[in-house]
Structures are given as C-alpha cells and as structure tokens.
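Example record

The entry below shows one chain as it appears in the dataset: sequence first, then structure tokens.
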Amino acid sequence: MSFLSLSYFAFFPLAALGYFLLPQRGRNLWLLGCSWFFYLCAGPAYFPFLAGVCLVSYFGGRRLEETRRKGLLVFCLVLFIGMLFLFKYLNFGMETLSRLLALAGLDWSPMVPRLLLPAGISFYLFAAMGYLIDVYRGKVEAEKSFVKTALFLSFFPALLSGPIGRADRLLPQFDSRHEFDAAGCREGFYRFLWGAFKKLVLADRLAVVVDTVFAGPGQFGSVQVIAAACAFSIQIYCDFSAYSDMAVGSARIMGFDLIENFRTPYFSRSVAEFWRRWHISLSTWFRDYLYIPLGGSRKGTGRRYCNILVVFAVSGLWHGAALSFVVWGLLNGLYQVVGAVTAPARNRLRAALPGGEDGALVKLWQMGWVFLLSTVAWVFFEAGSLTAALAVFRGMASPVLWVPPLSGMGMDRWEFLAAGVGFLILTAVDWYSTRTDPARKLAESPRWLRWVVSLALLLVVVVFGSYGSGYDAQSFIYGQF
C-alpha cells in the first residue's frame, strides 16, 4: 500500500479517525492493528519477520535492562544482522566468494536460493538494533508494553522507508494523548501534498529520462548523458524526500512528530555537510552506533579517516548488495577525507577572495561542487554495476555532443518544460525552507492564502503529475532497501 495509492487514501482517514475517537487506552492497540494491516498489504509473507523482530526486541530489551549482559546484546545484534545478510546479501556474498576463489584458480559456483526480501526490513531492523543498544547503554528504559514496542517498530508512516525511528524520540509520544488539532492537520496535509508534488511532477518524470539514457548511454551524446546523470541527482532527492514528507505529514495529522530526514542537502557547502542533511535518520544512526563506537575522531587523524571510510562502505552495502553501492559509499567517504585534508588550504584561499568565505559567489561555487561530486557518485548508485557505471562515464566523454531527436531521451519538449518549471518551484521552496518551515507557515496563514496555495499545488499535481496507465504507485526508490 503506497502513500500515493487509492487504497492508502481510503485507509489513512479511517486510521486517523479511529485513533482520535477511541479512548486513550485503546489508541495504541488501534494504531498497531492499522500498522500491521498496512504491512500485510505489502505482502502477508513478510509479516512473520516483522512480528519476530518485535518479539525479540521486546523480550531482549526487558532482559537487557535487568542484566546489562553484553553477550545478550551481541546475540540480538548478530541475530538481526544475520537476518539482514540472509535475505539481502547472501547471494552477493556467495558470488563475491566465488570470484575470489576463481582468482586463486578454484572453480566454485554455489547454488544460492533466491529468497524473498521482506519489505522495509532494513529500516525496522536498524530501529530495533538502535533500541536495544540504547537500553543496554541506559539511554532509554526498556518498554514494559509489548504493544508500544511493536508499535515503535511498526508505526505505518515510517515502516517501509523510514525515517528510522529512535526510541527516546518516538516511544514517549505513544504515552501522550493527541487531540485533533486543526493547525497540525493542515500542516500535515500540506507536507503530504508537497511530497506528492515532488514525487509525481518531478521524480517520476525525470525517471523516464534517467532510465532511457542509462539503459544505453552509448546511443546518446555526452551532453545528454551528463544531463541524465544530473537528472538522477534531482530524481533521487525528490523521490526519497517525497516519501519522507508524506510519512512526516501523515504522522503529523495524527499528532506525532517524526525526525526530519532531509534539510535541503543540495544547498550544502561541503560533502560532510551534505551528509548531515541527507537521510538524516540513517546518517545519525551510523554516527551513533558505528562511527563513535569505532573511535570516531578520538583516536587520531588517521583512525578518524579510516572510520569514515568504514562507515560509508557499510552505508553503501546497506543500500544494496552490489559492488557499485560499495564504490558509491567509499567515494562519498573519500570525498570527506580529501575535504578534511585540503580544508586549511581551501579556507585560506576563500578568505583571500572578495567577500570572504561567506560571499555569494563562494557559496554558489561550493554548492556547485557538492552537486557535481554527488552526481559522480550517484552514477554508481543508479547504474547497478561497475560495468554499467563505466559505460555511463564513457558516454559522458563521447565526442558526440547531441544525438537528435530530443524525444529520444523519453520525453518531448513539453515534458522537459514541465520538469524545468517544477525544478524552479522546488528550488524556490527549498530556499525558503532554509529560513522557516513552509508547511507550518502556510498552516498559520490566512484562510484565503491557504486555499489558493493548496488548490494551485493540487492542480499542478493532477495536471502535470506522472500517473495513469502503467504507473506503479509502489515504485519509491528507497522501497527496495
């Protein structure tokens, strides 16, 4: 059940209405039932894995609080990581081992069964591991209610693609009585509608160009291949941040506050800043549960750089079981290491420029470099294999600049115009959101302005959105992770 499916438009009002009408003692049970129904719609075969993780987290958390036994924590973490490896990485691991043995002259081709990958498993397993680690550290108390523990891991707005929940932030909200709040409901609706705009008007439209060009980069000119790579940088941002917007918006309508997952990352002035503003729930998870335990920046410069590379290599693997994802992660880590090494020289250079480090031209230059470096890395992410990524880079270096017609890229000029106007709207709203929360500001605006903006945005989504025959409402990029 996708956020943009008719079934969700029928499901969510009933879920929210039931939540507000029920007495407090029945609300969490109602939400858990709704969340599990939501997950069952993704596939009944997936449900036993979610239920099992909820049970292990509940009993494991209770026991960890009583004993503080490190062995128990390690057992639970190994169990969860083992599940993730079994369903997501077994085939990749066996293929990699087979290639390594082939280099040693040994011929071994294992028969690996294709296992069903449970929807959202990476997200709720990371939430469960974070919860158990926090209980062990004494940061949070073990939840005494199984319903609340299961609801924390299953809360339907964030279940399939995040944001990854943190126990200290989300669990206390299930104890609060959330009354219907008209302003909060409006804010959540505007946030959801803005997510629909980014997904339908931009992400799914740009996906046509990206898929067409990346499928055969040698058939296009270098300008077209570069344009497609840049289009993917915008597509993946719009696609994933749209899901997060709709998740945050759905939760806000019911009175819950989920973590912000994106803060205009392409306005960042360094790659390190970019990763503080992109997929924030995952970046902070790796910081708190991997980077800092590895030593962080406390054990010398060399160790710090190694820790950064390890974290980003793991982050690449989290996104997908392929070497191209590992390269993508390592490349982003390498950007940060090189940036840290060259920072003193670059700081001196910028300070000598007119306007200093905060001059408008310096800011634009830095943001341009962040976008360029991110786009190079995104090629490995989207291509799916190292061979396909290299083919895209060869296409970028082609001496042929353009292969007509324009429609050969998958869209006609009117579609490109719609995408261009949508991108300008996105840039303006993102720029405005660096100063205030647009959804909250609109929710507090006069009624006439709220209606004008809402109807205009809804009209744009309906008229220029990509949907209809053949459209897959389930096709959020991060749904596969």
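Notes for this example: Residues 221 and 402 are 4 Å apart (CA to CA). The chain is about 70% helix and 0% strand.
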